[in-house]
Design a protein that fits this description.
CATH class of the largest domain: Alpha Beta
Strand content: 25-35%
Radius of gyration: 29 Å
Number of domains: 3
CATH architecture of the largest domain: 2-Layer Sandwich
Number of helices: 16
Helix content: 25-40%
Distance between the termini: 49 Å
Number of strands: 31
Largest sheet: 9 strands, mixed
Length: 591
């Protein structure tokens, strides 16, 4: 392919509003163009990267025994209401009306559709297990699209669904997908980590996320460098709870009521009373499946809504509005406390370790000092409710936890019977009894593979693509394009390398060498070959790997063999790296 025919609109300046390295560099490299908020066109160069990622995903899914199908993006909302997710997904679900007044949605995921398929087609245990997958455009009414193709309203996704007869089959299917994901991301050259994760509105009781650490990652990964424990902050546990509960001091004085005029926030109250924030507690009121419930945690801690939801056994939780809070508790926001609370309350474990605490007095402009947990309010419902953070004890070994940002590229779930029960998907077991199907769900954001590869591998000059998903393997740069013999040599080299199975781009533009080299670094093709008049006179061409600082020369007459040899050596190195990761993963993963 010649550059002059390839439509690669590179930019010299950083586009306005682009912050994440992947967003900046994919725009500057002419690989994507923004159409609107959260919607992007993949230009020819970017589409080649996307298609190579798709090819790897498809190959590994097929190798794992999954069957590909293609489901409609347009889904009846009745399916979502049947599963109970219509309300849980809320405004993220893109809804529209079609002719005849039928209410439809553009699918962000396809659990409902796949369940509808299998409840009609799966009749007997003899048909199980089976795993189905698709690679398809999904839609989500994302309120804050950002970071380019990382968070968009329209995105390409591989979603797979395992259909199993029992938990044993589900565990086997889950392990196959887990390992397939590892092979996919290994082949894409991504430095990922695997973390325990929260299932969120998808549902299910066990899940793992595949994360690429990067500074602009949207998720927070909590990990232990000592034992290898890692989890998304939504799911991360905190160790040391068995020793946290404190027996109330029988000699502790009674709490006292103090006036705190106009002081509503934790900071305002603690500054007014001249006490540290970690000696205070805040009571937060939520609607859990539509009913008021309270969470009590230390004033300097942040509530983990996923943990709170699990503690209540609720399907969903959302912050209550001020009017609902006052109606449920009899007290306006800012003065709520646990003493005499009128609604169900869950207490964070850190509260149980405190000898006394400052809390709201359940009256306007009143707070209470010296309130003793376990004496003045119940600790009957005690749970881990807060976000884990750096410095907290590891739940596995007690070591100090650390934190880093990560970009999610894949997620695997054990759904169990969440959808089969709500939507009536059953089969007849070996005894002829009607039994609910067991399901798993496995998603990969294809766009995020592209973005995370850039986030993980770039420098000040541009992108550094892994060989496996690079738009082209080799960039040939003839320096004097008016020289017919030189161009002929460049095209002959392209032909030889292409015949050997490599993707080759020839920069045939009539531009200065420095201009071409800057664009070469920007678009990040792994191997650059420079052909110049002076070099050819000496029988040499210059080769340079994008991730190396120095160029070197090889004989012009055998340049194709030299380049093929170097690329094969790179592939062997990558295969060895993948094998080492598999060995380390097998040793670290619990049985």
């Amino acid at each position: 392919m010649r550059w002059t025919h390839a439509l690669i609109p590179t930019l010299k300046e950083t586009p306005a509003d682009a912050v994440a390295p992947s967003h900046v560099l994919l725009l500057r490299a002419g690989m994507i163009r923004q159409l609107g908020a959260g919607t992007y066109t993949y230009m020819p160069l970017g589409l080649r990267v996307l298609q190579k990622a798709v090819q790897i995903v498809r190959q590994e899914m097929d190798a794992a025994g999954a069957l590909e199908l293609l489901m409609p993006a347009l889904q009846p909302v009745e399916l979502w209401k049947e599963s109970g997710r219509f309300e849980a997904y809320g405004d993220l679900l893109m809804k529209l009306a079609i002719s005849g007044g039928h209410q439809m949605a553009l699918g962000p995921t396809h659990e409902e559709v796949i369940t509808d398929i299998v409840r009609d087609l799966i009749r007997s245990y003899k048909q199980l297990p089976v795993t189905l997958y698709q690679i398809q455009t999904k839609f989500r009414d994302e309120p804050r699209p950002r970071f380019g193709i990382v968070r968009t309203r329209e995105f390409l996704m591989k979603d797979a669904y395992s259909i199993d007869a029992d938990l044993g089959q589900l565990n086997t299917s889950y392990d196959k997908m887990y390992e397939a994901y590892c092979r996919i991301f290994d082949r894409c050259g991504l430095p990922y980590v695997i973390v325990e994760a929260e299932s969120g509105p998808i549902g299910g009781d066990s899940s793992h996320e595949f994360m690429v650490p990067c500074s602009t990652g949207e998720d927070t990964v909590i990990f232990c460098g000592k034992c290898g424990y890692a989890a998304n902050q939504e799911r991360a546990e905190i160790g040391g709870h068995d020793h946290a509960v404190r027996t109330p001091d029988p000699a502790a004085p009674a709490y006292e009521s103090v006036d705190t005029p106009g002081k509503r926030t934790i900071r305002e109250v603690c500054q007014f009373l001249d006490v540290p924030e970690q000696t205070s507690a805040k009571l937060l009121v939520y609607l859990a499946d539509g009913k008021p419930a309270a969470a009590l945690l230390r004033g300097d801690h942040e509530l983990n809504e996923a943990k709170f939801r699990r503690a209540l056994g609720a399907s969903s939780v959302e912050p209550a509005d001020p009017a609902t809070i006052e109606k449920a508790t009899g007290t306006p926001m800012g003065f709520l406390g646990p003493v005499g609370i009128r609604i169900p309350m869950v207490v964070d474990r850190a509260i149980a370790a405190m000898p006394a605490v400052v809390v709201g007095g359940n009256a306007v402009d009143v707070h209470l000092k010296g309130v003793v947990p376990g004496r003045d309010f119940s600790l009957e419902s005690l749970h881990d409710l807060r976000n884990a953070d750096a410095g907290d004890p590891c739940p596995r070994c007690g070591g100090a936890l650390e934190r880093k940002s990560g970009l999610e590229i894949g997620h695997v779930f054990k759904l169990g019977t969440k959808y089969s029960k709500s939507m009536g998907a059953t089969y007849l077991d070996e005894k002829g009894a009607e039994t609910h199907i067991i399901m798993g769900c496995y998603g990969i954001g294809i766009n995020r593979i592209v973005a995370s590869a850039v986030e993980a591998s770039h420098d000040a000059n541009g992108i550094v693509w892994p060989l496996s998903i690079a738009p082209y393997h080799v960039l040939i740069v003839p320096l004097q394009v008016q020289n017919a013999a030189l161009i002929e040599r460049a095209l002959a080299l392209e032909s030889a390398l292409s015949a050997a199975g490599l993707d080759v781009l020839v920069d045939d533009r009539d531009q200065r060498p420095g201009f071409k080299f800057k664009d070469a670094d920007l678009i990040g093709i792994p191997l650059r070959v420079v052909i110049g008049e002076r070099g050819l006179k000496d029988g040499q061409v210059e080769v340079k790997w994008r991730d190396q600082a120095e160029a070197r020369t090889v004989p012009a007459d055998s340049a194709d063999r030299s380049i093929l040899g170097e690329i094969e050596a790179r592939k062997r190195q990558h295969d060895e790296w993948c094998a080492e990761r598999r060995t380390a993963r097998a040793a670290a993963r619990p049985s």
